Amino acid sequence: MRxxxxxxxxxxxxxxxxxxxxxxDKSDDDTxxxxxxxxxxxxKIDELDFSDDSFVDVINDLKEKVPGLHVRTxxxxxxxxxxxxxxxxxxxxxxxxxxxxxxxxxxxxIVISQKGNAYDGSIMIRGGKERGYPAxxxx
Length: 139
Hints:
The protein is α/β, with parallel strands linked by helices.
């Protein structure tokens, strides 16, 4: 029984280490602007309180609370700026707020990281479950 516990603990530690290395590998490819945006995702937000507010108002409020944040939405019709949003959160990071907020609508976001792209360092909100990185980067 003791060997099983030790083996389980070792496997959990190894899994955590490899997950951390995969995340580090992804961020090593980031442009400077994308790295700054990833740091902004860790900004603590005191309070968010939306009650039937349009999504464009939610985005503007987030940009006000997190200076330097740039947000775009997909032009493929998966994200509607006039969508009425109801959402409350206290003492959360921007990443946690986006995860909970966007998850309600099956929307995701990526940080654009591409040198020469006019939107480098922006957050792109689009349909899906992505959280910071494009789905193809997860592979």
